[in-house]
Design brief:
The protein is mainly alpha-helical. The protein contains seven helices and three strands.
Length: 179
Amino acid sequence: MMLDRRSADPEATTPHDDRPRGPGPARRLVARIALCLLAVAGLYQGVWAQVGPRSFFEQFPGSRSWIATDGPYNEHLVRDVGGLATGLSVVAMVAAWSLAKALLVANAAGWLVYAMPHLGYHVAHPLDSAGMQAVNVLVLSSEVVLPVIGRLGTSWGDERRPVARSPRAHAGPAEATRG
């Protein structure tokens, strides 16, 4: 058992178990795979929309023309959405590499802010083909689930476990002399 050395006051020290409480290697691997899948999907959409906005508009997700049925072509909007998807993908890749808690939280928050309304739109405005709608909802749902799985690549709390102390150890100087 080790004492917490953050305070010079011995009465204020807290013993800790120094065993890591963070996720194990399997959980980190699953988080990295989820984040990489998310990044690949985002890059597929984002780079295509930025490099070939007209092609993306007319053929996404691959000669299906899902976007063109929603209104007139707007190069500016298509390129901006492509930049958004590409940017989110870059954050997912950096999060997969580092597994830093703050970055995993920011990545998950960013993807959820983008993906939840996007999924909601496509559920409320289904494609004509039920089979393609099912695929669309599955893919868009993955943009909600994968960043959450990625977030699990790190622990939720302090990296050390507090060790329970006896009530006597919590007593102040006056209470410790009573007896």
